Amino acid sequence: MADTSIRDVARAAGTSAGLVQHHFKTKARLRRAVDEYVTSIVVGALGDASELEGFADPIQAAGDRITAFVAANPTALRYVGRALVDGDRAGRRVFDAFVEVILANLRRLADE
Known about the structure:
Layout: H1 6-13, H2 17-24, H3 27-46, H4 58-72, H5 74-85, H6 89-111
Helix pairs in contact: 1-2, 3-6, 5-6
């Protein structure tokens, strides 16, 4: 990811490098915005274990939620995977957020 330029990002997004730079100012701010977005979709999709209440098998329901998230968000998962392979600290923080959301769900299910 370190070798990805703002131009590369703009090309992939179908916009101009100037527009990307105008909006985010720096590559670091663009990266933070992506990290925040990826973390927010994980929390949004998996963060509320109370939604598992009432299921005959809440563990199966939790697994189904995770499976649905993986199927619906392959780009986000590739992003985190690439960050981990690259040894990126920010990527590890995003991955840690994934793990914490899942652990919180499991703790809540265990308490119930």
